[in-house]
Amino acid sequence: MSTPAIHSDALAQKLADSGLRNTPQREFVYDALLKKRDHPTADEVYARVKTQLPGISLATVYNCLETLVQCDLVRAVNFERAPTRYCPNQHPHAHFHDESTGSTHDIELPPGLLAKIKGILPPGYDAEAIELTFRGKAPPSR
Amino acid sequence: MSTPAIHSDALAQKLADSGLRNTPQREFVYDALLKKRDHPTADEVYARVKTQLPGISLATVYNCLETLVQCDLVRAVNFERAPTRYCPNQHPHAHFHDESTGSTHDIELPPGLLAKIKGILPPGYDAEAIELTFRGKAPPSR
DNA sequence: TCCTTCTTTAGAATTATTCCAATTTCAACT
DNA sequence: AGTTGAAATTGGAATAATTCTAAAGAAGGA
Q1: How many domains are contained in chain A?
Q2: Is any atom of nucleic acid chain C found less than 7 Å from the CB of residue B20?
Q3: What ipTM did this prediction achieve?
C-alpha cells in the first residue's frame, strides 16, 4: 500500500466523524507529525511530506494541519510570534520552550492539575481550553 | 507639565536602571497602557497616543513597547496568532481570552500556584517564565 | 559648543498565513 | 460505467503584523 499506516486509522475514524474525506495529503501530513514528534512548523512539515508527495503544495499542508487541529488529532502550539508548531500528543500536557536551542518539549501534567488550575477562575468564567507554557533552559537531550 | 504623571516615575527609574533615556514617547506609551488596561494591540496604543503626540510613528510605538517589555514594566501577551497585546499588570497573573468578545482578562494567581506548577517540571528543566492562558467564555463585565 | 550615542521617523521589506479562482478528486446516485 | 455535486488541492496573489533601514533629531558629557 502506498499510504502510511503508522496511525492505525485513528485519522480515518476522526475524519469520518467530522464528515470529512480521507486523502493521501492528510495521511502523509499526519504521518509526518507522528514520525518525528519535534513540533515542526508548517514549512518543516511541507519539506518532510514533499519527499513522499512531491506535488503537494504549502497551502495544502496548511489546510491539512488545520483539518487535523479541527479533528482534535493535533494541537497548534504558539510561542510568542514564532511560526505555529504542530503537536500530535493527545494527552494533556504543557510545553517547554528552550530558548537556546529553539526546541519545544512536551511536559506531561499530573492528574488533577488542570482541574486545580481551572479552579482559580472567578465565578462565571468558563474555560474551554488551558494553555500552559514554560520558557527557559531545558536539560541536554539524551 | 506636559508629560503624563500617572506612573509615579517608576518608568524613569526602570529606564535609568537599564541605561536608557526617558523620552516623551516612552512616557505617553506607558501612560496609555496604564490609563486603559484593556490589553491593547500596538495599533491601538498608536491610535491612543497619537491624540496626544500627533507626530509619533507606529515604529516608535513598537520600539517603546519593546523597551517597556525589556524593562519589566509591561508584559507582551500572545494568543494564537492574533496581534500581540500589552499588559502593564506587574503581579503574577494568567490571561483569559473571551472568544465571543475578543477581550482579554487578567486572572490573579493564588500564592504558591506558580511554584506548584513549576514543580511539575522534570529535573534539569529551569523555567524563567511561565505563561498560563485560558480560552473560553467570560462573564458579562459590569 | 562639539561629539557621541541614543532615539525617532517614514517607508520599504519581511514573512507566516490566508485567500482566491481554477482544476481535480471522489463518493453517491442513477 | 457515466454523471453529478460537494469537497479537496493547487499555485499564485494578497494580507497584515512586525521588523528593518537609513536618515534626521534630541540629549548628555567633555
Answers
A1: 2
A2: yes
A3: 0.91
